[in-house]
Amino acid sequence: MKRSKNAKGKPKKKKSFSGRRSKFCKFCVEKLPFIDYKDTKTLSAFTPERGKVLPRRTSGVCAVHQRALVEAIKRARNIALLPFATD
Ligand SMILES: [Zn+2]
Q1: Three-state DSSP class for residue 66
Q2: CATH topology of domain 26-78
Q3: Sign of the alpha-carbon torsion through 80, 72, 45, 85
Q4: pLDDT truncated to tens, each residue of the chain (87 aa)?
Q5: What is the CA(16)–ligand 1 centre distance, in A?
């Protein structure tokens, strides 16, 4: 039985992008008990342009801390430490 050739001979190329983000959770590494909403320096690192929160797959933050981070960012926005969607 002959089957049509499937693309097997293709070498898989791994994308190696330069602007790669850390794969570990920054907050787990630093063992912070909570994420300080007043720490705009840290928070703004996770809110690139437009004031959006960086997705987990990009930032490498774990689920627990991502949730805490979002909360902290929301709080920071409410007291005008961080911008809402700036467009
Ligand atoms: Zn974490």
Answers
A1: helix
A2: 30s Ribosomal Protein S18 (4.10.640)
A3: negative
A4: 666 665 566 666 665 444 555 678 999 999 888 899 999 999 999 988 776 888 999 899 999 999 999 999 999 999 989 888 766
A5: 25
Q: How far is the CA of 11 from the centre of ligand 1 (A)?
A: 35
User: Which class for 17: exposed (0-12), middle (13-18), buried (19 or more C-beta within 10 A)?
Assistant: exposed
Q: What is the pTM of this model?
A: 0.69
* Ligand 1: centre distance to CA 64 (Å): 6
Distance CA 53, CA 6 (A): 41
Ion ligand 1 neighbours, Cβ < 5 Å:
25, 27-28, 62, 65
Asked if residue 42 lies in contact with residue 72, where contact means CB atoms within 8 angstroms, the answer is no
Indicate the domain borders of the chain: 26-78
